[in-house]
Design goal:
The chain has one domain. It is 91% helix and 0% strand.
Length: 129
């Protein structure tokens, strides 16, 4: 059996680069940087990766390209999920603010009603004397 037929080292290389891409992407997305800095870093990593894989056989490069495309789609999906989560958090904050205002209004109305009843009770007690 030839080495090319079993290709365990080729799979290992592709797996390594896939893990490197995913790890670098996750690190870039989670790092506290501006969008411009993140894009610049992604471009640098992309260029470094191209240089490193230029010596790989064509089949491995094609697999790597497919995996890179898959990784890009996953990153885009992750960005979409983050955006949706951020929107949900904003909506939740708005909902809680509305409920807080309603609760404060109800508490204030209760205080005013209690004060009126106290005054009415005091007034009726002084009339009875």
């Amino acid at each position: 059996m030839h080495r090319d037929e079993s290709c365990p080292s080729g799979i290992a290389v592709v797996s390594f680069f896939t893990g490197a891409i995913i790890g670098a992407t996750a690190a870039l997305l989670l790092a506290p940087r501006s969008g411009r800095e993140t894009r610049e870093r992604l471009a640098e990593y992309s260029e470094e990766l191209r240089d490193k894989v230029s010596y790989l056989p064509e089949e491995l490069r094609e697999r790597g390209a497919d995996l890179a495309d898959r990784g890009r789609r996953m990153v885009e999906k992750g960005r979409d999920l983050i955006s949706r989560g951020t929107n949900m958090i904003d909506e939740g904050k708005h909902f809680l603010d509305e409920k807080k205002e309603a609760l404060n209004a109800a508490i204030e109305a209760g205080r005013e009603a209690m004060q009126r009843e106290r005054e009415a009770l005091t007034s009726s007690m002084t009339e009875d004397e």
